[in-house]
Structure formats: C-alpha cells, structure tokens
C-alpha cells in the first residue's frame, strides 16, 4: 500500500467511522467521508492511497484528476504567500504547487479559478504535491492552425511564461505566443485570455495580441482625455497644437496619438478648441 497508487482491496470490517480494508496481510482505513458508493464486508473495491495530516495511510474511493505520470487541467482553489497555489485534484485534500515552481513575480501567480496543466508528485513521506507540465509534455496537445483564423478572436490559457512573453494553449488546441509588446498587462500563469491572431506561422503556431484594435485603442485614448476634462469641469489647456512633451507628461500619449484622439472627439461633436484650450461642446455659447 503506497501513497499515490491504486490497489484493489477487500472490505474486512465495518466500524462506526468507516471500513477497514485488507490486502490479506495489512489493513487500512476507508473513512466514511471517502466512501463514494455503498459497499459491503467481503466486497473487493479499488481505492487510492494517501496520508493524512498525522502521516497515517488512508484509502479513498475518490478518483484523483491526476496521478504520478498522468497530466490534466486542475483548478486553483487557494493562493498563499510564501507557499504557493493549492489546486483541486479530485480528493478531499487539495495539493500544493510550491512557490519554487511558480513565476518569480508574485503578481503573475495564478488566481483562484485559474487552471494549470499538471501532474501529481508524491514526496518520500507520502505528501502530495503538484508539478507544472513541461513544454515537452504539453506539446502533444497541440494541433496546427491554418491561415483561416488570421485576425480572428481567440481564447486560450497561459501555461508557460518566459521573459519575452507568454505561451497559451487555445480552446481549439493551437499553440499561441503573446509577445510582451502585444499586451498592456502581463497575464497570470493559468489565466484565460482572449486576443486576436496576428500571425499564423509555417509550423502551425500562432502569435496573439491582447492589445485593442486600432479603432478601439483610439476610442480608449479619447475617453481618457474626455474623463480628464470632466475632472476639470469640461475644459483643459491642451489642444492638438500643444507641445509633445507636455502631452506625454500629462496623458502618456505621443503627439500623433493625442491628435487622433482629439480628432475623434471633435468628429463626434463632443469638444471644440479655442485659443489653446479644449472645451466640452455643451459649454459653447
């Protein structure tokens, strides 16, 4: 009876708190909380072994999502600083992905609800841990993309991160890469993201952008400028002729981006410019 393995045992005795199972020489407890269907003394059942908080071996009829040597997607159920992320593996007790196996930056650790592709690892004392799948393990999951998805919206889960960007596996099974220049915020490990396919490569992988399309970005810049004007009562000392450095300092926009956003606001009849200032249109007398 080894933690992390399955074995078929015989129900030897029923007690108030569960059943004792035997392999003919040793016995192990199957607690009532670990029973998933009705069983009787003398019946043979398949169980999975673990160890409890007091390092005692126990049996369960619950089937783990992952075992040593098998991989699967598991949900993050808790994240603890200086420890790591706990994931649900189908058993009564969650398993830990230690901080050593998570990204160096805490802000891109997975959140509760994110998904990780993992396998189970059993320590020398029978404790369960979880290890993230390597690129070599994930590779067989991928299928080739074709040019028909170019510029289409696509959704995937971040399974690996490097300095240059993030790798995702999409819902369709495509391998995608999000370069650091194609995002406003770095996605978390295990996060599900939706972006746009900006390249389909010859090897069947894709490049994905999380940035808004140009017209969406323009609208976002325009709304940010409009919100700034609202804070100032509907007027600001900036126009499309303002100094580029002043624009950059105030809005973190290039002069060209600022002019495009201002043009959008004026075209939609929301603002007007006069003597070096920009005003809400409703303020015009």
UniProtKB/TrEMBL annotation:
Superkingdom: Bacteria
S1 motif domain boundaries: 151-211
GO terms, molecular function: nucleic acid binding
Short name of any one Pfam family annotated for the protein: S1_2
PANTHER family (UniProt xref): CONSERVED VIRULENCE FACTOR B (PTHR37296:SF1)
Species annotation: Metabacillus litoralis
Annotated protein name in UniProt: S1 motif domain-containing protein
Family from the record: Belongs to the CvfB family.
